[in-house]
Amino acid sequence: MKKMMIIGLTLLTTASFAQKNNTTNAAMSWKAYQSSKNSGNMEMAEKELLEAVNFISKSAAHESTQNDPKTLMYKGKIYCEAAVVGAEAKTEALKALGNKETSKEGLAAFKKSAKNDSKGKYSSDIKDYCAIARGNNYNSAVKMYEAKNYENSMGSFLTSAAYGEAMGLTDTVAIYYGGIAAIKSENYEQALTAFTRTSKLGFELPSSSSYLAEAYTKLDRVADGEKVLSGLLESHPGNKDIMISLINLYLGSGKKMEAEKVLSDAIALDPSNKELHYVVGTIYEGQERYEDAEKSYKKVLEIDPNYSNALLGLGAVYFNKAANLNGKINGLSLGDPNEEVYRTEMTESFKKALPYLEKANELTPNNAEIIGSLRQAYYKTGDMEKAKAMKVLLDGLK
């Protein structure tokens, strides 16, 4: 029995030694690869990198060395390199490794090495490699973004962030810009992941939460978006930027009542915010709650008398009230006594609309919507000369 145990121990030790030898061979192949790459001999470099992959794969898979920090450190370097070089390799076996999965496996190995390396013996090796890869990916991402190659820019920004994580850093800048590139390339799932992280970390909250709401809306996951943004609001109570993102989510999905409630809370926190009052006005106007819309638009103009959108909005409220009255007149029977009452009210509403529409026209000239509304208002109030002038302007815009 004792003899059998000794033999078993010898076999175990021999197997362990063999795996450590694989790690050593991987390290030697790695160094040879670097030398060939630096000298420009990519044919030899590919061969040596593939050898390194084969050696490290064996030791990383064996139970005796799979948790060894040195083995994991080399696996990280070799796999991350294989993912990059493999993308353009001529060697088919190496080309098969040129993908995101290989890169993910390499980055995971770096993290595991750092976790298992209690003495920090290999931490500088990992940080040095990752720092270079991180910088290269970030610079590449910026260039591709400037060239409007948003999909590849997204990948490089997020890869840069992943290398930062392998170094123990959270690169919110790279994650944020990776998210923007994802939005621009219409990769809303990636945008969702990126902006969920930056929003939770409180980074660039006005735009992070706004982009997050946009991603949820585009993916038709409004309920999920509401849950996440409401959770963010609980984590950052009273944060107006998150409120606005939640409002935009509701408005984008037609949930005007829900938007109105959050708007009321936001206005209570920031009563002098003209944008909030304006959005409330548009909601009321859309619901044909013209008196409420009138109050909201007037509040905007108290804050900023030259806010052209609110001027147009208030003019539109009076114009629409007049148009509704005109519809009632058209529906009356001949000789109905209400016609005169409605006609007087209609004319007064058109007259009320005029000063706001005129000022909006001064501030925003050549706007077909404003000019068209002015033309009808002048016509309905009997100012035919100005109505004709508006028609000339309108025809000139066609």
UniProtKB/TrEMBL annotation:
Q: Which Gene3D superfamilies match?
A: Tetratricopeptide repeat domain
Q: Where are the TPR repeats?
A: 274-307
Note the PROSITE patterns from the entry. TPR, TPR_REGION
User: Which Pfam families does this one have?
Assistant: TPR_16, TPR_19
Alphabetical UniProt keywords? Repeat, Signal, TPR repeat
Highest taxon of the lineage: Bacteria
Indicate the secretion signal residues.
1-20
InterPro entries (UniProt xref) = CellSynth/LPSAsmb/PSIAsmb, TPR-like_helical_dom_sf, TPR_rpt
Which PANTHER family has this protein been placed in? LIPOPOLYSACCHARIDE ASSEMBLY PROTEIN B, TPR REPEAT-CONTAINING PROTEIN PA4667
Q: What is this protein called?
A: Tetratricopeptide repeat protein
